[in-house]
Amino acid sequence: MKYHLEKEHINREEVLQTLKKINQSKIDAPQTNKQNIKLIMRAQGAKAMPQDCPESIRTHRSIMQMLAFHYRPFSFVEDACFLMTLSLLNVSFQIYGADHFRTVILNDVYNWAVYTIMSELKYQPSLHFTSDLWKCKMSGFQYISLTVHWCDVKTFHMRHFCQKVEQTSS
Q1: Comparing C-alpha atoms, which of 37, 52, 35 is closest to residue 89?
Q2: What are the tens digits of pLDDT across the range 152-162?
Q3: Do 65 and 147 lie in a common domain?
């Protein structure tokens, strides 16, 4: 919104006043836990690890798995105690914010999981499919799922994977 105001309406006096208030509120705003911990880490001599290095990618994926397995909200990655723990484990690691986890990391982990499973499926001699339809009594939405089942030829363990669940309104 700020970008739009600056680009399209900068010549109006009330817009200039609004932009000044926005900028002042950012200056006056108290620092977040994440900003405070970054300051502490810098004071300890920490240099940020590149976000695209393999260790950073593995760590972000691992944190995403922790969030999923333990039903934690994305805002957990901005919790002060969690950030302090990460800084103790690896001073050079700087975590992304909740919005980045919600969008980029989640999409990355999903694509990685699909690629891993699909690459495993292409070597299986046979696949079996099941589907299911249901309607949520609370929301009225209808769902359909398709699940693939197979027996891993290396270990003879039964495996399954549901590719995607679609939602349609009634």
Answers
A1: 37
A2: 777 776 666 55
A3: no
